[in-house]
Amino acid sequence: MKIKKLLAAAFFCAAILCAMSVTGFAEDIIVDSGNGQQTTYTDLATAVEAAPDGSTVTVPAGEYTLESKTYNSSINGSLTYGLKFDKSITLKGAQAGISALDRTGEETVLKSSVNGYNSGMILFTRYGVDVTIDGFTFESESWDTIGNDDPGVQKVNIVNNIFQTNGQNTTPVKLKLEQGAISNNKFIGENCGYGVRINPIDTRDTSWTSEEMPDEFNIDIAIESNDFSGITLTDTMRGVIDLNTGETTGAIKVANNDFSGINATSIVNKCKNVTVESENNYFNVENAAELQAAIDAASEGDTINLASGTYDISAAGISINKPIILKGVEGTEIIGSICIQSGDVTIDGLKFTSPVKIGGEEEPVCIFINTVVAPATSYDNITITNCDFTPTNKYTSDKGSKYKGIVTSSAGSYDKL
Fold first, then answer.
1. What pLDDT sits at residue 347?
2. Please, where are the H alpha helices in 285-386?
3. How far is the C-alpha of 350 from the C-alpha of 306, rounded, in Å?
4. What is the pTM of this model?
5. How far is CA 24 from CA 51, 55, 337, in A?
6. Most Cβ neighbours (<10 Å): which of 181, 271, 334, 373?
7. Can you tell me the distance from the alpha carbon of 16 to that of 93, in angstroms, rounded to the nearest whole number?
8. By the 8 A CB rule, do 31 and 38 touch?
């Protein structure tokens, strides 16, 4: 009897060990191309492939080149990639936990030979994963630095990374994503397709995959505190952030991002059924041309920060037709006039040194609030604060010429002006 019990226990333990060898447990893995102390692997792709589900893979400072590999997609055909994720993993570089917006120190640099159409430096091939990529510098010529195969990916956090793209129509982050955060990243590159593009989770027939898929998807994504000021787009009609979410429902938060100097007519291309919560995004400008471009591209609620200097808008003027904030500092001087044609506008800290005639007025006007233009006949919450309406030109000369600080058109009413 004792022998039978011992044999049964032995078989049970063997079964447990076998299951462990197949499924594995989450591990802390160190990848170091220099084979330093406590190194588990010297090759990153090998480490990610071997890591059990839920593992953390840490990559110290240094340069790591990802070789091109091929993945045969059932829907998209042949895809080239450097790293493939089909499991939940946390990937940590030397700068993990440190914002990419203003940091020093050695970087973990990932380079790739992957380039061309249908290529991704990092490729997600499974929906039901939870992946974090934190603290890297990506130097990429791939079509997408981070992308995925159909049907999409459930949860990805892309945080504290620097993206340096070098190629025509490259996009640093393009994902069919349901949940996650894209935050505290810095984007650098010319001729980009987009900065971030979120596509709809694929709702087509998924019988081709053995993975269990939900009946409905609910998007919950935050794109916040990123610096997009270092990129230019090949097509200025595209948005820096493109939210092509199709029939999917949910919400995407776009907040506290730097869009300074972007060569786009719109910053966020909004989507069909997903709610976009845009707040506290900003542009830093240094001249009149940048000021007008920022006003044109800004979304409702954005802030345009004017550096100290002279902004000559006397030729064409500036028209504000959306709820935004214009904020100057000491030494921000305006030559010309501003026309407001929207509610919820704030003008803060500007000095008007040489206004011009505007709105049919017989005398120069610093700020003209125009409610005659359709569709509004009334604007609420217009705030003009900390402004200096003491022109230094001929309108204050001994000739008796006059000027006006703020003028409202004869039609309409004004609340909280």
1. 94
2. 288-297
3. 9
4. 0.85
5. 8, 10, 68
6. 334
7. 34
8. no
